[in-house]
Structure formats: structure tokens, C-alpha cells
Design goal:
Low-confidence stretches: none
InterPro entries: CPA3_antiporter_subunitB (IPR050622), MnhB (IPR007182)
Distance between the termini: 54 Å
Shape: globular
Strand content: under 5%
Pfam families: MnhB
Family: Belongs to the CPA3 antiporters (TC 2.A.63) subunit B family.
Helix content: over 70%
Mean pLDDT: 88
Main location: membrane
Subcellular location: Cell membrane
Number of helices: 10
Structural class: mainly alpha
Largest sheet: none
Number of strands: 0
Order of helices and strands: HHHHHHHHHH
């Protein structure tokens, strides 16, 4: 295909996209008006499924399949990072030297770590009831573990963070979401359909499959962030080790 032909194909595609976008915008409700068709339907569906947090109802019920795609993107990125940053035969890891941490920072880090971890778990567990959920709570929970790196040192983080278990949990969280979706097929409904008992509104057991899918995402996100940071930190140690060897040679 010539350059001119490629430009024509690009121009036709852009014009078609612009036309579809303009047509879609003409059907949008007026800004600041009282007519919100999508929001009204989402709230109505959340109440019918006894999910107090409408956002979680949208993420893990109305469009649970899209959320599976988002989770899979994170899982694939972690897998790619592990493969690309794996230690090769010619790489040598140098044990990090302990660094003196100010006493105030050490005390503050040890105090905040369990509180931050508890907040992350709370956000995950209450995702169907209040703002937050597996994605947000997973990041908070994973970040809390790395307060050890800031307040103590890297070896302390390594002792507290068995990387192999987190890699296993990352895959388990992804698999749990996929298998929970199959529950809908087993009952004769659609994949990822909300087929479990809906429970009592505004309780931890409400929402049917929503809290379970939310927990699966929380496990996957927490483990994924821990694994990502672990490989990035390990790579930094290897690069720093190479610099030190080069300077002493």
C-alpha cells in the first residue's frame, strides 16, 4: 500500500469516528439537567441487586465482564514484568547495606503499617457498601507493606514479603474471578451473571456475587502491586551492584 493510500484510509477512519462521536453527543442529556438515563438505570439495578454502592454494582455486576478485562490487563503486565526483569545468569545481586533510619521515622512507620493495612482490607471488604473496593483497597494494602522499606530497611521487607506466595496469590485472584463468572453458566444464565443469593441490603453479605468478585480483585491487585514493586526494587539493587563493582575495578 502506498503512502497516499494509507493517508486516505486514515482520513476515512477519522471521519467515520468523528461522525459517530458527533451522533453520540447529540443524544447526551443536557448538562446540569435532571434527566440522567444511565445513572437512573444504574441506581435502580444496584438497589434491585441489593448493592448499596452503585459504583461497585456497575463494576462487578452490570459490566463485570469489562472489569475482568481490566484485571487481566494488570495480571498480564505483572507477568510481562516478571519475565522481562527476571535475573539472568550474568546478573549478580549485591546484598543491600543497612541504612540508619531516624528513630522517629522508624516508630512512625511501625505504627502506621498495621493501620494502613487494616484500612486497605476494610476498603476491600466494604467495596459493595461504601466508596472503594478491590482496586483501591488492594493498592493501599500493598503499599502498607512497603512502609517497612521506608521505616526499617530492605531485608526487613523481604522477610515480611514471601514473594512466591504473592505470585501465587496473584494468579489465584485472577482465576477466582474467572471461575466465579462460570457460576452463571452453571445455573443456565450468562457468564458473570449475578446468580448467588442477594442477602440483606447494606450488609457485608449483600450483593450476591459482587462482594466475591470484589474480593478476588482485591487479592489480585494487592499481590500484583507487591510483585511489581519487588521486581523493580530487585532490579535497582542489581544495577546499583553493577555500578559499585565497576567503580572498584
Amino acid at each position: 500500500m502506498t503512502r497516499r493510500a494509507r493517508l486516505w484510509v486514515l482520513a476515512v477512519g477519522l471521519l467515520a469516528t468523528a461522525a459517530l462521536y458527533a451522533a453520540a453527543c447529540t443524544e447526551l442529556p443536557g448538562f446540569g439537567g435532571s434527566w440522567h438515563p444511565y445513572g437512573d438505570r444504574a441506581v435502580r439495578a444496584a438497589l434491585q441487586q441489593r448493592t448499596a454502592n452503585t459504583v461497585s454494582s456497575v463494576n462487578f455486576d452490570l459490566r463485570a465482564f469489562d472489569t475482568l478485562g481490566e484485571e487481566s490487563v494488570l495480571f498480564a503486565s505483572v507477568l510481562g514484568t516478571v519475565v522481562l526483569l527476571r535475573q539472568t545468569r550474568d546478573e549478580k545481586r549485591v546484598a543491600p547495606e543497612p541504612v540508619r533510619v531516624p528513630a522517629a521515622l522508624r516508630r512512625y512507620g511501625r505504627l502506621v503499617l498495621p493501620v494502613t493495612l487494616l484500612i486497605g482490607l476494610y476498603v476491600i471488604a466494604h467495596g459493595q457498601l461504601s466508596p472503594g473496593g478491590g482496586f483501591q483497597g488492594g493498592v493501599v494494602a500493598a503499599t502498607s507493606l512497603h512502609l517497612l522499606y521506608i521505616a526499617v530497611d530492605y531485608p526487613a521487607l523481604e522477610r515480611f514479603r514471601p514473594l512466591g506466595l504473592y505470585e501465587l496469590a496473584d494468579g489465584a485472584g485472577e482465576a477466582a474471578y474467572v471461575l466465579l463468572g462460570a457460576a452463571g453458566l452453571m445455573t443456565g444464565s450468562a457468564y458473570l451473571a449475578n446468580v448467588l443469593p442477594l442477602g440483606t441490603f447494606n450488609t457485608l453479605s449483600s450483593g450476591g456475587t459482587v462482594p466475591l468478585l470484589n474480593a478476588a480483585v482485591g487479592i489480585e491487585v494487592t499481590s500484583a502491586v507487591v510483585v511489581l514493586l519487588a521486581h523493580f526494587l530487585t532490579q535497582a539493587l542489581e544495577i546499583e551492584g553493577e555500578r559499585e563493582e565497576g567503580s572498584t575495578a
